[in-house]
Write a structure and sequence with these properties.
The protein has 164 residues and is α+β, with helices and mostly antiparallel strands. It has a single domain, classed as 2-Layer Sandwich (Endonuclease, Chain A), CATH 3.30.870. The chain contains seven helices and eight strands; from the N terminus they run αβαβαβααβαβββαβ. Strands 1-7-6-5-2-3-4-8 form an eight-stranded mixed β-sheet, with helices on both faces. The chain is globular.
């Protein structure tokens, strides 16, 4: 049994956010879900985070990284490195954009390993976050919301590389 202090994630700044993302992604085996209203430059694009995302995306047949963002085109224009990863590994990395106005008003961001770990930022534009590497109940609640939005969202076709 793990100690709750070992699994809790508390973030107050950008450096802490990167460490928490790496810890969460490192425990994910095949699947990750990310709800990022805005894919800010400098967040989720470090070499360590991209290495973990690449590891998950190439982990085998069940590999799946799903990303919801309100403006994939802006992330593409700003050169977010996760977009480039999605373009290189389109069978494992999917990006969708919500179209329902109630979903477009969602102002928080979160990442889940889909089974037990999550990291939640109440205000997506800020670095402060809380999470836990072993919280299946909260992860399940966030995943239920994610799945609901995912089912109604549209694929972000505008970021597809030419010729595909």
């Amino acid at each position: 049994m793990t100690d709750k202090a070992d699994t809790a994630l508390t973030v107050e700044d950008r450096a802490g956010l990167e460490v928490a993302h790496v810890r969460l992604l490192a425990q994910a085996r095949y699947r990750v879900a990310m709800y990022l209203p805005r894919m800010e430059p400098g967040v989720l694009d470090s070499d360590a985070i991209l290495a973990e995302l690449r590891r998950i995306a190439t982990s085998g047949r069940p590999a799946q990284i799903r990303i919801l963002t309100h403006d994939a085109e802006q992330a593409h224009r700003e050169g977010h490195r996760v977009i480039a990863l999605a373009q290189r590994l389109p069978t494992a990395v999917s990006i969708r954009t919500p179209v329902d106005e109630t979903h477009l008003g969602y102002a928080s961001a979160f990442i889940c390993d889909t089974t037990s770990g999550f990291l939640f930022r109440p205000v997506a534009s800020r670095y402060e976050a809380r999470g836990d590497l072993d919280a299946p109940g909260e992860t399940s609640r966030l995943m239920a919301y994610f799945d609901e939005v995912w089912e109604r969202a549209e694929p972000a076709w505008q970021i597809r590389p030419l010729g595909i």
